[in-house]
Amino acid sequence: MKKHICFAVLFICAAVFTLAGAGDVFAHGVVYDQKLVGENTLRVTLRWSDPGRKETILITSMVPRSWKDIDIGYEVSNGGSDGNNGSNTRDINLNMFLRPVCIRLFDVNNYEKPIFKDIGGHYAESSIHHLHDAGIVNGKSDELFKPKDTVTRAEFMAMLVRAVKFADPGRLSKDGAARDDFKDISRHWARDYILAALGGGLVSGFDDGHGGKAFRPDNPVTVAEACTFISRAFNPRESRNGLYEKLKQDKWYSGTVKRIFDAEILNTKDEIYWNFNEEAPINRADCCVMLSRALSK
């Protein structure tokens, strides 16, 4: 009897842990929103990802790192909120930069501290930092990002939809997500993201064998699928017509994967190219590299 009880407790705990980790792509701490005001002004608002936090965020510096990159420094005041739920806004004159700009936040009192313990010095650190600060991705916990972990199709949809809405808040409206063609997402945590992507023409499903469609949300997303979804979402402009010896030919995804390389969302110097396989699952780090570059084009 005790063994059965122990097994039941362990099973319940495991289920709760799994569900709690299913949608772990929300950012933590300070993140930012952006809005184009007129033709040449970008309005950037720093806010808490947790609406329960009310401390005032003070913007202390805005430092250009290049013609496309801006570091925004902040610190947190313990004196309470200023009436705007702690948020703070600054305008950036875009005449000084190449568009679109890429913004990275840093706490001036902890400048050297990485947002996650396991990405310091990682090839994708800058991309992970970018997407985290934009509120698009988060870690597996407050301290770990686990860049080598694979990504499910549902998790990728959550990242992709947030990235698209960050770049263009008017896209993927709720009205466009009214169709519900997939039979395997009715109770899934990512249902709204998947339907938004479906309504925007970013995804298609699989034949479920019963005259309907399935999305297979918990399957790992492959490199080819990630390339396809990003190409549909961002319609990237190709800057070259390259030859890439490791890309497979005459596959359903061949043209799209080549386009991703020609648009420099991936390149032959990336770690993913070392053992390139379009049909293999993509990891969290490489997803961030691709989405960050797509947003920065």
Care to describe what's here?
This protein has two domains: 30-113, no CATH class; 153-295, no CATH class. The protein is built from seven helices and eight strands. The protein has helices at 2-22, 125-133, 153-167, 191-199, 223-234, 254-262, 284-295, and strands at residues 30-37, 41-48, 56-64, 69-77, 88-93, 102-107, 206-207, 213-214. A hairpin with a 3-residue loop joins strand 1 (30-37) and strand 2 (41-48). Helix 3 (153-167) crosses helix 4 (191-199) and helix 5 (223-234) runs parallel beside helix 7 (284-295). The chain is globular and about 60 Å long. 33% of the residues are buried. Residues 1-26 have low confidence and may be disordered.
Biggest sheet statistics: 3 strands, antiparallel
Helix content: 25-40%
SS-derived structural category: alpha+beta
**Tally of contiguous helical segments:** 7
- Whole-Å distance between the termini? 61 Å
* Principal-axes shape call: globular
SSE map:
Blueprint: H1 2-22, E1 30-37, E2 41-48, E3 56-64, E4 69-77, E5 88-93, E6 102-107, H2 125-133, H3 153-167, H4 191-199, E7 206-207, E8 213-214, H5 223-234, H6 254-262, H7 284-295
Parallel strand pairs: 4-6
Antiparallel strand pairs: 1-2, 2-5, 3-4, 7-8
Helix pairs in contact: 2-7, 3-4, 5-6, 5-7
Q: What characteristics describe this protein?
A:
297 residues; alpha+beta; 2 domains; three-stranded antiparallel sheet; three-stranded mixed sheet; 7 helices; 8 strands; 17% strand; globular; disordered N terminus
Summarize the structure.
The chain is an alpha+beta fold and 297 residues long.
